[in-house]
Amino acid sequence: MTAKLPDTLSMMRDLIARPSVSCTDPHFDQSNLEVIHLLAGWLETLGFRIEIETVAERKANLIATLGDAGNPNGLVLSGHTDTVPYDLERWTFDPFAATERDHRLYGLGSADMKSFFALAIAAARRYSAKDLRQPLTILATADEESSMCGVKALVEEQKRLGRYAVIGEPTSLQPIRVHKGVMLESIRVRGQSGHSSDPALGANAIDGMYAVLTELLAFRAELQSRYRNPVFKVDYPTLNLGSIHGGDNPNRICAHCETQIDIRPLPGMDLEELHQTLVSRLEPALAASPRLSLEIQKLFDGLPPFETPADAEIIRTCEQLSGKPATSAAFGTEAPFLSRLGLETVVMGPGNIEQAHQPDEYLALDQIQPTIDLLSRLIERFCAVPHPVSS
Ligand SMILES: [Zn+2]
Predict the structure, then answer these.
(1) Residues 6+ apart with CB under 8 A from 358
(2) Which H helix or E strand runs over 280?
(3) Which of 89, 105, 212, 345 has the fewest CB atoms within 10 Å, i.e. is most exposed?
(4) pTM exceeds 0.85, yes or no
């Protein structure tokens, strides 16, 4: 039955050969359907029940399940089908050719994270439905690198996927149980232009921004004294002033000034609450200048922080099987969304994040066998043997 399934390296090549860039700029954005259908075909061959869920135009999630899909205690091996855009001139190799060189496989998505699917399938092919007491689900999402519309659609419909999830982002097979969230905000002060010789002729937006920034820095200091988490290298929430633009001419009163900031909240901090606090803290800064107005806007929906407790079963098991302690990541993932679906989630996969989002991205070939072995043991542990079920 598995005769129709290509070998692992061929699957990796086939996945890399199908471009699936996702990007907020429509000029670079591509469909992920070819990757979805390729995976669906292989998994169907192995006896998985296939569900393809359209989430946007030319974008879909794949939910493939082996075993009793009605049993809520299964294991989910999850990844994203898309890649970031690429800068062809900076690549030595063809990003879609999956070139093997120096014990590495070079290609766009080789580390982040198409190879993971091939390795998950290689682990899964050792089992058939009758071996499994709990179901095994392979989840392939759309647009993780841009809008996260794939995983968000699953949250919206409160999809029941299982009890445990492993997201195979490149962590060199070290379990990750926490990461910070991301919030990007635009803060605009609007005033009125006029001749510089008489301040009364206008309302100066830069003066207003000065008051706003003063309050913003006080807010940052407060956040950093209130929240700490020693699991992170930078153990406090950061607030970065990323850009500022305003005015045009020294002899004109500045009518408009904008600053953009990046906040990285710790687990336990709520994005919406943080946004509301930001608004209520900054608005009074302009109270003394009625001709100035303030506008605070989210630049994207935001990524919530993620945390699975250190003593959670998925974390302990992954620590034991990988031989590495669970730690934090400096990058964001779909983990907070899978957590919202009730999945005990860990991030752990082959390849190094340092090679992700880079020209000449590669996966070291010596990661392949350890990953297949590790995933097989996870399937064995969570699906193939009787497993204690809490209510
Ligand atoms: Zn990724």
Answers:
(1) none
(2) helix 271-282
(3) 89
(4) yes
